[in-house]
């Protein structure tokens, strides 16, 4: 029913361009979120739009700018939040836009002021983070240019932005009820044109040239394209599904050299994307991504290591995803308020496990497929170095394991390495501590592991989860809380629900 | 796309039955609201269910009982409330279940305790009252028997309950966006069987015999049927649309005498319901409804008269419904809290008009079709007698006027009369002050008026609106506030949104 692609951003820069710089400032936006009719594939459907448009408006800003988005919820019965994917929200954890975690959802008719600083340049996006409102269409591009007086470590002449996302004919409510999920991988082959990858998730990388790229849900890249081909022709760009056998055809668009007519069809057929299960191709791409010289380096040692086993499980026969055998079910009181004010009944106070049974065989389906829900939190002291080992495993069905792109809020992390099978102490020796890339999203490959490192330098409560929205919906995530006692100034509106809503309400009558 | 019938209840009593009485008590229910798959017409769709069933569970209680419904919102992104249609909520106006009026919507994951007294026996129903959640399937039957030691003024042997509602294939979100509405009238002809109407909206009426009844959205009736026909046959019951040209066939069901097989099809064809626009038939039925002797009588005189002109209008080209040229748009802070605590910025403080221009021609389309939105309130002092004249008019299109069933919360009203054309001072002389029926819902006929009287004896804020859900959605309603300063004990949770949510939040930080 659906076609093409989760919320991803590919930012294409055409060489080489001299920037004009304005001055650092506060940008004020007024946005209304409401359903609109939209027919991207000639079949009319309802989609969540912003100011009457879908996808939402592109935000363009400079590093160091403050933004204020006055977001008015014009939905009739649904709350809403917006997550600013890739923005670390230093000092403003309540503006991270995660319902149940950083704030109460904005009620219908209410307006919330998302006010925060764009801490660094990059190609980002924003999207809903409540239920499956991202799948309902709530997203758009967010592009932060370098600050005044700074330059990028590459040059280009022009730029354009591709925001890739899935589109379904079935409503999100159908999807929620059915817990159905969609394949969500992307690959492009701009025929004859090479792409030079220069930025990933808002961090510069060592430039490397490819003919196609693997992009996963939650990721963003900037690539340079030299427009050195015959200008009288147009060129196919193919977009195909990765990681799960596709039931939809490749998507196609055209690279057009002005003033050539954009309706001129190329003579040659569109490029065929790599087969969906060519994981070696995918891994080869991931391993090419290395930090640009001069990028921040990771601490040499970690203070704590959390190993997270990703398994598909059952609860009362319903399919779920679990992390160390706990399927995340978010509480009605957002953690930021309940932890700050020590409301101990708001969530499970027991810390979730930091490892899994040593005899678990990641190459086989779970021996006991049953799991339980939970909403415990990993409490992390400030200014410690945390390693997370994401461990993939076989799903319920034998001989199947899928790719999952994990996204961390409030942070970038270093990707120290990828490996096959079960992570062992020996694997640590192969960690790349020299030039690991900083990312906010990283995949685990089938039956493999991925090692990440980050420093707990940002007081707040941060989600860490698989970015495939139905997988998060089915429990595939964890929550990190760090230094919440240092958070001050949470807006009342962000607390006006759940236990914080009822306990802190003081009227003359009560 | 859809078929059959708005939320209405027809309660059929089969003569004659000796009641067994229990004792007055508090009934405790635990309900979860969530979407479920349902296939009432063989096509699977999502519908809002309660405890996994659609329609929701039937509540059965006795007058004088207290009920506590612990309602947990298991929807993922939507708030929810439930209105107990026909229950006056004396002393518990926060339990009326009207979002933006009596309480904050219950957030996803939260539980609200609807605790109130069933003040009188009757055939009622309950339904969502937030956005178009009634159309989404949130409703069920609510039947209150007479109190212990009391008897009904009629006898019957057995009873069954028919809850009539519309069913659409299109989602509520599609409907909301499209502002589409559906015809919603009902009429039944239990062939060969006569029906004796004995109760309307929870008030006894003078029994009268009919072969079919007109039932409108928001209404409920009890009828007696004497099962005096040939028991070896089954009998068709036909249900047809009234008041708007139907695009769906009559719905059919069978009246079956046990132990005759229920699959035995009657020899004769099903009865044909009256034509959709046979308004004389409808008026004749309405005029037969008179209060049973001994029912409360209206005060002889009114203290205040509010005349409400019903017009179809435009705002920026969007079709709306307006009352005295104001299209109701509910505020994000529920009135009960904002009026109680004098939060003057929460809504328009200017009282809406109590009449319309004397030269307005109700027989013609509006000369100036444009209108504006508003959320002002009619402030009513306690213990006054208020007359409301509902004045129908021509719609935007010439020579068209439709039936609207108006429902009042927190009260029953006396229906003093129906008339044709524009209401004049002369019409007052024809008011029925002798035995007008008490109802909570009454219709206005095309191009006609309906006169209602009620006493402001119930402190609270009460919606008064057309019960066709899309019409309310498009602005067809007003709000009455009476003696709100006498309301005490509003639960904090009912205030935890909008201005009451943010102003009354006291945390250690703020």
Automatic annotation (TrEMBL), chains A, B:
Residues 1-22 form the signal peptide. Residues 33-145, 191-258, 364-484 form the Plastocyanin-like domain. GO terms for molecular function: copper ion binding; oxidoreductase activity. It is found in: Secreted. One of its GO terms (cellular component) is plasmodesma. Its cofactor is Cu cation. CDD domains: CuRO_1_AAO (cd13845), CuRO_3_AAO (cd13893). PROSITE patterns: MULTICOPPER_OXIDASE1, MULTICOPPER_OXIDASE2. It holds the Pfam family Cu-oxidase. SUPFAM superfamilies: Cupredoxins. It comes from the Eukaryota. The keyword Ligase does not apply. Keywords: Copper, Glycoprotein, Metal-binding, Oxidoreductase, Repeat, Secreted, Signal. Its main location: secreted. Belongs to the multicopper oxidase family. This is L-ascorbate oxidase. The lineage of its organism: Eukaryota, Viridiplantae, Streptophyta, Embryophyta, Tracheophyta.
């Amino acid at each position: 029913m659906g076609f093409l692609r989760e919320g991803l951003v590919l930012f294409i820069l055409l060489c080489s361009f001299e920037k004009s710089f304005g001055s650092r400032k506060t940008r004020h936006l007024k946005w209304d979120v409401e359903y609109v009719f939209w027919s991207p594939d000639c079949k009319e459907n309802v989609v969540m739009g912003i100011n009457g448009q879908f996808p939402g408006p592109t935000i363009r800003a400079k590093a160091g700018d403050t933004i204020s988005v006055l977001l008015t919820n014009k939905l009739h019965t649904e709350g809403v939040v917006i997550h600013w994917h890739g923005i670390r929200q230093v000092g403003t954890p309540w503006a991270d836009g995660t319902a149940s975690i950083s704030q109460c959802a904005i009620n219908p008719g209410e307006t919330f002021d998302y006010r925060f600083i764009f801490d660094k340049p990059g190609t980002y996006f924003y999207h809903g983070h409540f239920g499956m409102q991202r799948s309902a269409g709530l997203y758009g591009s967010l592009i932060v240019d370098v600050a005044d007086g700074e330059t990028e470590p590459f040059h280009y002449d022009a730029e354009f932005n591709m925001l890739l996302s899935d589109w379904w004919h079935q409503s999100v409510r159908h999807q929620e009820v059915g817990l159905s999920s969609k394949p969500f991988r992307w690959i492009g082959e701009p025929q004859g044109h090479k792409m030079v990858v220069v930025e990933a998730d808002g961090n510069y990388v060592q430039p490397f040239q490819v003919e196609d790229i693997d992009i996963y849900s939650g990721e963003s890249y900037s690539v340079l394209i030299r427009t050195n081909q015959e200008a009288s022709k147009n060129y196919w760009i193919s977009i195909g599904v990765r990681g799960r056998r596709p039931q939809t055809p490749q998507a196609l668009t055209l690279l057009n050299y002005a003033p050539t007519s954009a309706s001129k069809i190329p003579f040659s057929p569109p490029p065929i994307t790599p087969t969906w299960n060519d994981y070696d191709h995918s891994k080869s791409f991931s391993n090419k991504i290395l930090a640009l010289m001069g990028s921040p380096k990771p601490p040499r040692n970690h203070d704590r290591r959390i190993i997270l086993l990703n398994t598909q499980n059952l609860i009362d026969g319903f399919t779920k995803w679990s992390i160390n055998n706990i399927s995340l079910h978010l509480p009605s009181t957002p953690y930021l308020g309940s932890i700050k004010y020590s409301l101990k009944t708001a969530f499970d106070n027991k810390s979730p496990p930091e490892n899994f049974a040593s005899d678990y065989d990641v190459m086989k389906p779970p021996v006991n497929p049953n799991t339980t829900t939970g909403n415990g939190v990993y409490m992390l002291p400030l200014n410690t170095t945390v390693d997370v080992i994401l461990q993939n495993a076989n799903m319920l069905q034998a001989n199947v394991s899928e790719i999952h792109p994990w996204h961390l809020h409030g942070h970038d992390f270093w990707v120290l390495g990828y490996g096959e099978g079960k992570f062992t102490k020996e694997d640590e020796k192969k960690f790349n501590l020299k030039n690991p890339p900083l990312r906010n999203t990283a995949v685990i490959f089938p039956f493999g592991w991925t090692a990440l490192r980050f420093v707990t330098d940002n007081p707040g409560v941060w989600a860490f989860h698989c970015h495939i929205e139905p997988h998060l919906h089915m429990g595939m995530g964890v929550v990190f809380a760090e230094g919440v006692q240092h958070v001050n100034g949470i807006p009342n509106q962000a607390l006006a629900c759940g236990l914080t809503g009822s306990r802190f309400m003081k009227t003359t009558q009560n």
